[in-house]
Amino acid sequence: MQVYRKHCQEGAIDSIIHLGDLTSDAKALAVRLGSNVISVKGNMDGSFSDSQYKILETEFGPILLIHGHMQAVKRDTQKLIYKTQELGCKAVLYGHTHQPSMDNVNGIYLLNPGSISLPRQGNGSYAMLDTSNGDFRANILFYEAKPEVKGGHLYSIMNNSDRA
Fold it and tell me: What are phi and psi of 49, to 5 degrees?
């Protein structure tokens, strides 16, 4: 909520992209925030199919949205790059590792926003992406401290899957 409110006041949010795990988190965010939430299934949804992805059409070009567990992103991103190329996408947004990263490999942008509620290292993170004017501009942003959790409500809404 804190992240959404901060950026919403700046007029910077068109959509929220939820890269897994639980699609129930994405549905809860959409209801709670009244915002457009685009989501993909992850391993915590019981999704063990390489077909669980979406392609987001943008001014920049097609962007692959995928959790990444079926591409073994915890080991390396080579299978993820192959999948992105196979689908004709210019960039890929993925999750699964809970670690933020941003790279450009042979002209393909790879962006993992990390995790807001259960980062693997350091403070929680998320990404802001702007694809207007045909550009791919992304920033990974970090909390100075983990977001305040009152009664566990933010934690349960933002990322149920991180508890597993």
Answer: -130, 140
pLDDT tens, position by position, 65-113:
999 999 999 999 999 999 999 999 999 999 999 999 999 999 999 999 9
Mean pLDDT of 109-129: 89
3-state SS, residue 158: helix
Say if CB 123 and CB 131 are below 8 A apart.
no
Q: Of 110, 154, 129, whose CA–CA distance to 17 is shortest?
A: 129
Q: For residues 88 and 161, what is the distance between their CA atoms, to the nearest angstrom? A: 30
Burial code of 35-73, b = ≥16 C-beta within 10 A, e = fewer? eebebbbbbbbebeeeebbeebebebeebbbbbbbbbeb
Task: Indicate the residue type of 54.
Answer: K
Phi/psi at 131 (nearest 5 deg)?
-115, 10
Q: Which domains does the chain have, with CATH numbers?
A: 2-163 (3.60.21.10)
DSSP 8-state class, residue 76 = -
The pTM (predicted TM-score) of the whole model is 0.83
Three-state SS for 96? coil
Q: How far apart are CA 144 and CA 44, in angstroms?
A: 28
